[in-house]
Amino acid sequence: MMEFRNSEMLRIFLGEQVRLGHRPLYEEVVREARLQGMAGATVLKGVLSFGHDMEIHTSKIMELAEDLPMVVEICDTPQKIDTFLPVLEQMVRDSGGRIMVSREAVRSSIIG
């Protein structure tokens, strides 16, 4: 029987063009999550979005496809998420970018 544990899902919404140094911020977030020993991280690329600036970002129109939405999902214990959040905040400050973060309780299990 599959066993589930209490976990949290951290979702970080950011633009593809937000950079930390010479690398995309979403790559640096995943790298840092790995260094911190987080359970896992996945980056998803969106095809359509709008955010605080109310501008539409879409993969359909070539000139609007420059800054597509990216979502980084990190799942781990609430304690590990708590430890990671200040690091994430500093990375965003250092990038000069703007992101949105959501956090929710989930039940997770690893199969195999």
TrEMBL record:
Looking at the record's lineage, which domain of life comes first? Bacteria
**InterPro entries, per the entry:** N-reg_PII-like_a/b, N-reg_PII/ATP_PRibTrfase_C, UPF0166
Q: Which family does it belong to?
A: Belongs to the UPF0166 family.
Name of the protein: Uncharacterized protein
